[in-house]
Amino acid sequence: MSDDSGYSSRVAMPMRTRTAVGGAREVTEALLSSGDRKKKVRGIIFVSILLLGLTTALLAIAAMITWAFIAGWPRLDLSLFTNVPSVVLPENAGYRTAILGTLYVIGGVILLIVPLGVGAAIYLEEFANPRNPFNRFVDLNIQNLAGVPSIVFGILGLAFIVRGPLSLGFVAAAGSLTLALLVLPTVILASREALRAVPSSIRDGSLALGATVWQAVSKQVLPAAFPGVLTGVILAVARAIGEAAPLLLVGAVTFVTFDPSFFEGGYSTLPTMIYSYAKRPQDELQTLAAAGVVVMLVLLILINSVAIYLRNRFERTW
Amino acid sequence: MTSRKKLAVVAGALGMSLVLAACGGSDSSSETAAEDTTATAEETAAEVVEEATDAAGGELTGAINLDGSSTVGPLTEVAAELFMGQFPGVPTTVAISGTGGGFEKFCNGETDGNNASRQIKDEEIANCEANGIAYDNITVANDALTILVNQDNPVQCITVEQANQIWGDGSTVATWGDVDGLDIPADFASTPIALYGPGTDSGTFDFFTEVINGEEGSIRIDYTSIGEDDNAAVQAISGDVGAMGYVPFTYYQESLDLVKGLEIDGGNGCVAPEAANVSNGTYSPLGRALYVYASDVALSRPETVEFFNFYINNSDQIAEIAGAVGLTPEQKEEQLAKVASLSGS
Q1: Between B15, B91, B110, which is nearest A170 by CB?
Q2: What is the model's pTM?
Q3: Residue B150 falls within a domain, yes or no?
């Protein structure tokens, strides 16, 4: 932690945060629990609604994971990870090629979204003039893009990446690019929030000591915003890894028994395989689909745990 | 069922060698595992293997990619898996983006074959012609579209007219008693009919509406669309005594203990949805062919020709594993001729 000196007030700042959060909590609690009966009842209702929201979310996740484990139990073994798909002998089928395909596609997505997303966020947050109509237009579009249905990006990918100007063909790289476009707004928005959350005193202090804007951003602001950026990447990867619809359009196949490569040949991903198997008449394939859900969860946790480790390592509080 | 299991084991031996080869070459463990399975069903294995091993399979190289229908896709996946057991040098992939979506890519020259549960449409033909793609429809298996009802439903057989009365555009049939000429006990007549059918994107939908309602896409609007998930129809029908729906043969085969398949009367008496009736053509008008469209460009490559020949020749085994009905000897001959003429040999 040699660069700690950059955040000279590190010791003092967590206290400020604590005081601020604590103060807010106290005010809220005071408003909700003290005073007359009416306010107390309102407070209880408010807390109940919060808890209801939390339990609903947790129950849904728990139900899905439990279902996947129960339905997929007969197939949950190592061969599920190492065997290639087989429709002739589904009892022995595995997700090897789909796991590799997912890793290729998601690896490509991460490589693309981190520099592009962070770059865009830095420009919009640190350099662009927020009053410039063009910049505001860009800003608005990024927020709207975050809400565009994924299938639209699939069509876009088919027209411009698989065919058209890029003409990559139906390969894993095309899948990566398409999904990267899909989740880029998430990363940009999260990164901007992270940059905004860095106290301006750090920026100002750096500039006052003679640093250029770029030096202040790259040496001080960006490292401080890194955990927030990673949160954006985690969210983006979580969304990208579960996408099946746009990938079907840009060439993800449902049956491939050879290991994928990035720029050549067919590839598959876990969600496309799960989607395909879940609709089949054979019980074995439906079991396989459920087991695939578990594989996907494991993969997602593995990928994200790296990001979470990095985030915790760079975590700062003010 | 036992013969099917046996087949699965046989084919599995082929698949297994692939599986293990992918996991680190031909070390000793892969050989023993493959040996075990092969030994258990040696005779049948010989049958499957023999037919397509006239040439040394290992020498053929290249790559084949297929796309298209979700009804034919699983069948083609079985074909591809068995084919690669014979010809490991030809990586074959199968994608499922629907008959229509597949034709879009096929006519753009991006795929070697398109799985189709219906014939190619006019606008797709125009697209193929614009790109200079010549093609032919290769019949790879037969399917019996099966009308399903609940197992407690007393109806055994339905005529095309009755089915049309129920499913037709503007139909007001609400209970089983509303259908003319059905042989049902009086207490069942008041049971409401609940209808389940695939979404409008499905080739199965196109086919059913054409043969039952006389016009493709013509259907009453108040049925429950199950989208592309035929299992949903089976589940719904098994839980509702008045329910009715239609699914591809394979979904019926996998749920014989859950639902009842109705016999269909196309004017020549009641015919049950069974493989034999489909092969001999009496399961009319709901018997249909499943196609893979092949292009002349693709068939200019030897590995693609080999694949289609393999698919046709091994139609019985492939169809049995996938739950469809294999080709008759005449059909095989016909289709092999199509492949030969399209490949220009």
Answers
A1: B110
A2: 0.80
A3: yes
